[in-house]
């Protein structure tokens, strides 16, 4: 695949100009999208903001066909689904608690 767009900072190449532009934000710190009205956090790309906002709205887009458990993040759903297929009975969900520290929560399948 042709990758004509070159990052002048590090030499990484991209096939789309928009991908290069998003990548270069890691150098500039630019986060141009509206911040989350709940917590004030900014995001590099709009879909990340939308995913984050689902944590406040309770909107669940991903559902386990075995038990009906729902997830607002695709990545957590795939981890859950993968572990279920491997016969594991739980997943670890990392989330922020009220004090802003990351906590790990063990979730039993079907709970």
Name some characteristics of this structure.
20% strand; alpha+beta; 111 residues; disordered C terminus; flat; two-stranded antiparallel ribbon
Report on this model:
With about 110 residues, the chain is α+β, with helices and mostly antiparallel strands. It has a domain at about 60-110. It is about 30% helix and about 20% strand. The protein is built from 3 helices and 6 strands; from the N terminus they run ββααββαββ. The protein has a two-stranded antiparallel ribbon. A two-stranded antiparallel ribbon has the order 3-4. A hairpin with a 6-residue loop joins β3 (about 60-65) and β4 (about 70). The longest helix has 12 residues, at about 15-30. The chain starts with a strand and ends with a strand. The model is unreliable at about 100-110 (pLDDT under 50). This is C2H2-type domain-containing protein. Keywords: DNA-binding, Metal-binding, Repeat, Zinc, Zinc-finger.
Helix content, binned percent: 25-40%
Distance between the termini: 45 Å
The largest sheet, given as strand count, sense and whether it forms a barrel, is:
2 strands, antiparallel
Task: Name the strands of the widest sheet in spatial order.
Answer: 1-2
Shape: flat
Number of separate helices:
3
Cα gyration radius (Å): 18 Å
Task: Enumerate the spans where pLDDT stays under 50 for 5 or more consecutive residues.
Answer: 102-111
Secondary-structure element order, N to C? EEHHEEHEE
- Strand coverage percent: 15-25%
The pLDDT mean sits at: 75
Computed structural class = alpha+beta
Question: What's the total count of β strands?
Answer: 6
